[in-house]
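User: Predict the structure for this protein chain, please.
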Amino acid sequence: MTPARTHDLLEIDAKQFCVLQDSLPRWVEEELRRAPFVVVRRGVEMDFGIPVGVRGAARNERWAAFCDPKFVKRVISPPQLVGRTAAAFRMDAIPALRSLRILEGRWSTIPYPWGPGGSVGFELATASQVAMPASDLDIVIYIDSRMTTGEAADLCISAGDLPAAVDIRGETPICGFSLNEYASQGTEPILLRTPTGVVLGDDPWR
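Assistant: Here is the predicted structure, written as structure tokens:
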């Protein structure tokens, strides 16, 4: 299996996955029966599995678990979803989907792998209509080598003035962070999301 990173979607053998879970909420089994996908969450991978989350129909329906790699059928990363399209009626109804189409044109030449996460990414990967008219467009951008705050600011500006609000999550080999926070960092530390928890720091690459 291709190594999975935070935000990747995993298509899984839902039946086998559910059998091994303790105290499984009923809605989790129902959601996985409809769309057998989980998202890789930030955390330390254990011998017994990959840290994953299951999303439900409601915002408060989020369930954390571990998934045995042998149950994974396919890994879909956010960059693989760039260029995928939703049905025309969904594009009309969901500003975040329209925003992604515009951003694909603006970011067609940037040197960083990137793609949609959150509800838009889940919908494009699974064809489940989970994005809502008020949904933000969550973007994941992989920045393995150091980016200046000026470069980050340019990217944030180019993602502005879209039909939906855009939340850009930078991912380095060691942590995740808000690209907007980094762009306007100045001398103050920012929140760095690491596999073991959130810390304050001034260098997402160190």
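The mean pLDDT is 94.
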